[in-house]
Write a structure and sequence with these properties.
Elements (H helix, E strand, L loop, with lengths): L3 H10 L2 E5 L6 H16 L3 E6 L16 E3 L2 H10 L2 E5 L11 H6 L3 E6 L10 E4 L6 H12 L6 H14 L10 H12 L4 H9 L4 H12 L2 E3 L4 E6 L1 H7 L21 E8 L2 E8 L5 H6 L4 E2 L3 E7 L3 H14 L6
Parallel strand pairs: 1-2, 1-4, 2-3, 4-5, 5-6, 8-9
Antiparallel strand pairs: 7-8, 9-10, 10-12, 11-12
Helix pairs in contact: 2-5, 2-6, 5-6, 6-7, 6-8
Length: 330
């Protein structure tokens, strides 16, 4: 496991970097990538952020300079092959880079994970892994703050603040700590306007997103004597309102708003399969539940993607297994 001091030494000794994150990046992924990108640029490094997926609509305000690039083999393979170092943030499984996995495996360079998920694979040379931390944005801030690798200006501060509030559920999730709030206060001192960031993240919905939310909410069902709630969006629902997969970000949180619910499930159907988002309260291990269906994540928040599987066949199985996991509730 890398120390912050050692990471700073490694970054200083290299010149060119690729930063990447997982498919369908969320606020923590994009914000952490950008925070690290701007820090490296302050040290006169040659840096590219390259992701499988484009920046989601609600996060484009963070990337006003359009430095986050959607992967193109023709455009990016040469840079990936020649870069001194590959850095993966908010990810600890190389297959999560999707279409980019092959080029990273072919061009093995010194690489690291900076992440807060459990059970990393062995693809990289080193890692900073802190499962107890609520967001990767906090890890990036802590690194910059303790090593003074780069001064935290407003661009870095906005990026990391957005990363933190999205992955901590606006400071309400269980891994939100006193230190989380201390870091947030330091970012505010750097010039972050919390009201403005919140508005840009959560109060610029499109009408088709609200229509999708209505369809999802109308599908809610309860199992396990009212302790497991689930909702589903079908492919036809998304096509009907002209929505996209990024429009459903955060929908799973509504499954835990019902009185007495301990486990929430959200099913999203796509062309050739579906994915499940898992949420829980207390000690119920959603990472283990997701693992039974090829996924993973945190104790209280996880996900799995079942390509080529029928949602009608597997949804009852996932719900039934979730009911079994109520035995972990203490």
């Amino acid at each position: 496991m890398l120390s912050y001091k050692k990471l700073a030494e490694i970054l200083n000794s290299n010149k060119s970097f690729v930063i990447s994150s997982h498919i369908n990046p969320d606020g923590d992924a994009i914000g952490s990538e950008l925070g690290l990108y701007y820090a490296l640029m302050k040290n006169n490094k040659n840096v590219k952020i390259i992701n499988h997926s484009p920046v989601p609509r609600e996060l484009k305000f963070l990337d006003a300079e359009k430095v986050v690039e959607k992967y193109s083999p023709r455009k990016h393979n040469k840079f990936i092959a020649e870069a001194d170092m590959h850095i993966f943030v908010d990810i600890n499984q190389i297959d999560r880079v999707a279409s980019m996995e092959k080029v990273f495996r072919k061009n093995r360079k010194y690489s690291i994970y900076i992440d807060h998920h459990r059970d990393p694979d062995d693809f990289v040379n080193d890692m900073i892994l802190k499962p107890e931390i609520g967001s990767v944005g906090e890890i990036i801030f802590d690194f910059l703050d303790k090593t003074k690798f780069a001064p935290i200006d407003l661009k870095i501060a906005n990026s990391l603040y957005a990363a933190i509030i999205t992955d901590t559920g606006s400071f309400r999730f269980e891994r939100t700590s006193p230190k989380t709030h201390i870091i947030a206060s330091k970012l505010l001192r750097a010039g972050v306007n919390p009201k403005r960031i919140y508005e840009l993240l959560y109060e610029h919905d499109k009408i088709n997103r609200l229509k999708l939310l209505g369809k999802a909410l109308s599908s809610i069902r309860l199992d396990g004597k009212g302790k497991v709630s689930s909702m589903v969006l079908r492919l036809k629902d998304i096509k009907e309102v002209g929505g996209t997969e990024s429009d459903i970000e955060g929908f799973v949180s509504y499954t835990l708003t019902l009185e007495g619910v301990r486990i929430g499930l959200f099913f999203l159907e796509f062309e050739d399969g579906f994915k499940v988002s898992y949420r829980s309260r207390g000690t119920i291990p959603m990472n283990k539940l997701a693992g039974e269906f090829g996924g993973g994540g945190h104790i209280n928040a996880a996900g799995s993607r079942l390509d080529g599987k029928s949602i009608d066949e597997y949804m009852p199985k996932v719900i039934a297994k979730a009911v079994e996991y109520l035995k972990y509730d203490k």
